[in-house]
Specification:
Blueprint lengths: L6 E5 L3 H13 L3 E5 L2 H10 L4 E5 L7 H10 L8 E5 L4 H9 L4 E4 L4 H43 L5 H52 L2 H16 L6 H17 L5 H10 L10 H4 L4 H39 L8 E3 L1 H11 L1 H4 L3 E7 L5 E3 L1 H18 L4 E10 L2 E8 L29 H11 L3 E7 L2 E9 L4
Parallel strand pairs: 1-2, 1-3, 3-4, 4-5, 7-9
Antiparallel strand pairs: 6-8, 9-10, 10-12, 11-12
Helix pairs in contact: 2-3, 5-6, 5-11, 6-11, 6-14, 7-11, 8-9, 9-11, 11-12, 12-14, 14-15
InterPro entries: CheY-like_superfamily, HATPase_C_sf, HATPase_dom, His_kinase_dom, HisK_dim/P_dom, HisK_dim/P_sf, Sig_transdc_His_kin-like_C, Sig_transdc_resp-reg_receiver
EC number: 2.7.13.3
Protein name: histidine kinase
């Protein structure tokens, strides 16, 4: 059974009109529900909201304007697009229809192609609106998770390890905020563009389709479909080359405003095989037609941007949530060491972008029986110290491998190195070479205690330009 293209409620007190619309729309893949009076239309719409409503104006007891007003007053049906169908053709009638919430107006007698084109257009816009709302809900859920994660962090201050963890997070707050705010900015921008495009195109689409012939309307929809399917990202140099070539082609066809049209077409991802669209481009109002198509395709591209930005924000939130989780059971559990290291690196992403090249040399290890939250504190301290030692410019190399019955994790930086005379002191409590206020001197002491708790060991090798901390953890009993 073919999937329905959408559910449409047809409301008209003339049985012949209802039969015509039901038959036409059903043949074209839509699920159609008829209603022959205002009351049954309201009851049906509220009980089982359709995707779109075709509504007659002149009906007994309650006219179409009143029905539309009641639909728009209900939270259940206010978002359903209503297309008025009427023999009334005066401008004031149409103005009143749009004033009560209608999105379009079709004058009787019906033209089959016009009905189908307008129904398809408004269902497409409705789908894009629903997609946008869904993306907004996903963003709200992401923000909710972030708030819960940050609240969870506040409960980890009871132990010294957790206090150090909070101190490290304090240094990361600006970077984490940047990593969250960047996709949020992209989402806000895309939502604004989508809203603006919708406002413009909703007003212009009815007039546009009335001015186009059937063939031109099909060309317009084909042009829009080509743009929606285009996903190729062009460099600035490639864009300029394609625009020049397309401009020359349009000028050879004696098309006015060739440079403006070429810019718009390439921006929409259409730069070859444009012969089919030449009749459309030769119209005097071709620039206006392209602007409407550009706005519609921009809605889809905006939704894609929102999806990408949401995924990016979710990745940071997931890393923060993983890092913040504190297991109070007091029992060791099997864990993937590489995943823990990657979680810490994700949180440091903003600092890494300043000028750090990260090299990850991971070999596959079996899960290691450990306290994952405490090991995350180890990786946090070692990575943070390495970044500071390089002044956030250099190469950070992380290696994970198995050596006999141990998991070996080494973190190497290209900083100035540790002088021989202070190397024996670096694991002592409260010893620090950092300026006052930047370090407590407890970081490496905590690291050593955590590793000892895991029956492992930590070693350091340092020469100018290469400092390596090597952590060895037993995996024999994992």
């Amino acid at each position: 059974m073919n999937k329905s293209k959408g559910t449409i409620l047809v409301v008209d007190d003339t049985p012949a009109n209802v039969r015509f619309l039901v038959g036409t729309l059903t043949e074209n893949g839509y699920t159609v529900r008829p209603a022959i009076d205002s009351q049954s239309a309201l009851v049906g719409a509220l009980a089982e909201p359709p995707d779109l409503i075709l509504l007659d104006i002149q009906m007994p007891n309650m006219n179409g304007y009143e029905v539309c007003s009641k639909l728009k007053a209900s939270p259940t049906t206010r978002h359903i697009p209503v297309i008025f169908i009427s023999a009334l053709s005066e401008v004031l009638d149409k103005v009143k229809a749009f004033g009560v919430g209608g999105v379009d107006y079709i004058t009787k007698p019906f033209q089959l192609e016009e009905v189908l084109a307008r129904v398809e257009t408004h269902l497409a816009i409705q789908y894009l609106q629903k997609s946008l709302l869904q993306k907004n809900e996903e963003l709200a859920q992401t923000n909710h998770e972030l708030i819960n994660t940050l609240q969870q962090l506040k409960t980890t201050q009871e132990e010294l390890i957790q206090k150090e963890k909070m101190a490290a997070l304090g240094q990361l707050v600006a970077g984490i905020a940047h990593e969250i705010n960047t996709p949020l900015g992209a989402i806000r921008s895309s939502v604004g563009n989508i809203s603006e495009s919708l406002n413009q195109t909703l007003e212009q689409l009815p007039t546009l389709f009335q001015s186009l012939s059937l063939e031109q309307a099909q060309d317009f929809l084909a042009l829009l479909q080509r743009s929606l399917q285009s996903q190729l990202t062009l460099s600035t140099k490639e864009e300029r080359r394609l625009k020049r070539a397309l401009k020359n082609q349009l000028e050879s066809e004696e098309i006015k405003n060739a440079d403006i049209l070429a810019d718009a077409l390439v921006d929409m991802g259409i730069y070859n095989e444009v012969d089919a669209f030449l009749p459309l481009l030769k119209r005097p109002d071709s620039s206006h037609i392209l602007e409407i198509a550009y706005n519609l395709s921009g809605i889809q591209k905006g939704a894609t941007t929102i999806n990408t930005a949401t995924e990016r924000a979710s990745k940071v939130v997931f890393a923060l949530k993983t890092y913040a989780r504190y297991d109070q059971s007091g029992e060791m559990i099997p864990a993937n060491l590489s995943e823990g290291i990657n979680t810490v690196l994700t949180l440091y992403q903003n600092q890494l972008k300043k000028g750090i090249e990260v090299k990850r040399n991971y070999t596959e290890l079996p899960p290691v029986l450990c306290y994952p939250d405490e090991l995350n504190q180890v990786w946090t301290n070692l990575i943070h110290n390495a970044l500071q030692a390089m002044d956030y410019r250099g190469t950070l190399t992380i290696e994970v491998m198995q050596q006999e019955q141990y998991a070996s994790i080494s973190i190497t930086d290209t900083g100035a190195g540790i002088p021989e005379e202070i190397k024996p002191k670096i694991f002592e409590p409260f010893f620090t070479t950092k300026p006052p206020g930047e370090g407590s001197g407890l970081g490496l002491d905590i690291v050593k205690k955590i590793i000892k708790k895991h029956q492992g060991k930590i070693e350091v090798e340092s020469i100018p330009g290469q400092t390596k901390f090597i952590v060895s953890l037993p995996i024999a009993n994992s």
